[in-house]
Every structure is written in C-alpha cells, then in structure tokens.
Amino acid sequence: MANQPIWTCLKRDAHSMARLGRLDTPHGAVETPVFMPVGTQATVKAMTPASLKETGAELILSNTYHLYLRPGADLVAAHGGLHRFMHWDGPILTDSGGFQVFSLGDLRKIREEGVEFRSHIDGSAHLFTPESVMDVEAKLGADVAMAFDECIPYPSEYAYAKEATARSTRWARRCKDAHRREGQSLFGIVQGGTYPDLRAASAAELVEMDFPGYAIGGLSVGEEKPVMYEILEHTAPLLPQEKPRYLMGVGSPDCLVEGVLRGVDMFDCVLPTRIGRNGSLFTSEGRLTIRNAKYKTDMRPIDENCDCYACRHFTRAYIRHLFMAGEMLGAMLATTHNIRFLIALMAFLRKAIGEGRLREAAQKVLAIYQ
Questions:
Q1: 25, 87, 105, 168: most buried, per Cβ within 10 A?
Q2: What is the model's pLDDT at position 132?
Q3: Is 89 a catalytic site residue?
C-alpha cells in the first residue's frame, strides 16, 4: 500500500518532547495527544456507544485476538466491519493480539512461522502468523492496525530479548508485505525490552520500513515506572518526528503526563474501565474508593470539577449505594466518569501545549498522582 502521511504536527513544546498534532483517519480527525478507551471485544465495558461519545472519546481500541476467537473476523466483516458491528462511527485501532497471545504462557509455542496457541475459551488450537493477523485485521476494518510482534516480558534475559526483538522485526516486514487493506494504516511496534541497544536496533529497522506510525511496545509489563520512563526517553527520539508515536497499555494520569512530556501522541489502557467497575475513581484530588463508609451520606458529586454524566446527575452517596447493592449502574457511572476524566486530562494537556505552559500543567497533575 502507498504510505500516505496520516499525522500532522501542529506545535512542539519548547521545554519537552511533547507535540500537539492531528491524526487523520477515514472516520475523522483526532487531536493528539489522545487517550483511547479499550473496547476489547467490540465494546467498551459498561458503556454504550452513545455514552462513550458523550465522554468526548474519539478513537477507541479493539482486540484482534479476542475478536478472532469470538465472534470471528468473518462475522464482523459480514456486518461491514467493526464500525457497523459495534455502531461506532469514529476511528478505531486494532492491536494485533500479540500481547494476548504471549500472555498465554504454556498455552502457546513461538516459532519463526508464527505462534501456535490454544484458546483460553475452549482450548482449541490456532496459529497466528503475520500474514494471518493482517488478514484478520483487514476483515475487522479498523482505521489503524498494528503489526504482529512478540511482546517481551519483564524481566527478560538479554539473549532472549535480542532473539525476540529480531523476530518481531522480521514479522513486521512480513506484516507490511501482507497488508492490503485500502485506507487502513499499519503501525510498526518497537520492541527490545529494557535494553537500550535493542530498542535502538528495533527502531532503526522499523523506521527503514517506513510505516505511517510507530508504537512503543513491551513497556508497562511489570517494570517500575522509572524504568519505563528511561526506556521511553531513549526510544521516542529514535522515531520519525513527522509520524505518530503510540505507547501501548498505559493509562494512569501520571504515566499519561510523563508519556506526553517524552513525545508520545497516543495511549490506551483498560485501567479506567477496570478500576471503575471495582469502585475506584479518578478525581482532581486523587483516587477515590467509592465503597468506603465515609461516602455513605456524601451529597457531593464524584468530582466537583468534572462535567461527566455521573457527576452532573448523581451524588457519591447514590453511587456508593449502587455498588453496595450490586447494581450494574454503579459500574456504568464509575466507568463513564473515569473515561471522561482521562479524556479531559488529555484535552487539558493539549491546551497547555498550545499555550506554551505544559510544564506548569504537568506539575499540577503530577503533584496529585505521582
């Protein structure tokens, strides 16, 4: 496929690597830096498409591995692709399923052709190759597809990390050769574990392949945050200035800020939905556990500075009651709030970049969440 530019840098921060930009897709433009809510199985848990749209979410992520197993890429394609299947008219990104496959442990076997694995659902045997994953992602029809890679766990010995990184590079080339979906942008994924030389080698080889965008994978997999920041600070400058950078699997407020400062444009994570379903809420004063007894008669909204549906209409006391009573609306309202909080945080950071005051804005967030 012809490699058309999909991202435009609108402004660079004078005191960090942060960039303000616009990602153009067949389903609309997205302002960056951006946080992508995760809709693993063609739905963001506890959210309807309408409520998700109301949070200000523009770009969402779905999972190739899960959708391949259930309901199957052919059924999604029969609906006209993911957008129609899940009734979402905005941009969608699909990951390659690499992280999920490699998380299967003893249920998978890696070889040069690809990865043999057994389904976590029914134990059936499957094979993912770069070519088969490109076929699945083409049928899903997302605006952005990710190359199939080997996600290196933490910690990993240097020899294994080197071998896996080289294999991911070979697979990236095969993905690029097999990718045929018109209008779908394929991103390469930089691997290398926590070894700077391997990160540099991976980035150099992927940049030579000239992908329209690049992800930094294999971080937020168990390493301490300072280690992640160090590798990110080393890796991001190795990627093209004129193309988008995506840090996979990161979604806490402090990590979003630190990532933006280091030049990342796109983020995704299940964190806001997962902790929301368990009654943990982001607020402008820090994390709040709504089940705590002190909120039993609290008549305030979750966050008086938030404009989400939950904060506009309900009290902490009511939402706590829902959780204590086991009502699903509690999880829905908490999830809505957490996603809106992160969407608003990214808008706050974008505005700060545009106005040349990112350092001050970042310090404000990190004082609460670091």
A1: 168
A2: 97
A3: no
Catalytic residue among 95, 143, 149, 265: 95
- Block residue for tokens 């930094």: 216
> What CA–CA distance (Å, rounded) separates 60 from 43?
9
**pLDDT tens digits, residue range 291-315?**
999 999 999 999 999 999 999 999 9
pLDDT exceeds cutoff 80 at 158: yes
Tell me: the pLDDT tens digits for 11-30? 999 999 999 999 999 999 99
Q: What distances in angstroms separate CA 181 from CA 69, 83, 136, 137, one per listed residue?
A: 21, 15, 11, 9
Query: What dihedral do alpha carbons 110, 116, 119, 122 form, nearest 10°?
Result: -140
Our answer to whether residue 122 is catalytic in this structure is no
Tell me what pLDDT residue 102 has: 74
3-state secondary structure of 131: helix
Q: What is the pLDDT of residue 99?
A: 83
Q: What pTM was computed for the model?
A: 0.97
Q: Which of 13, 143, 265, 268 is catalytic?
A: 268
Amino acid sitting at position 72: G
> How long, in residues, is the chain?
370
C-alpha distance from residue 234 to each of 197, 211, 239, 254 (Å)? 10, 20, 10, 19
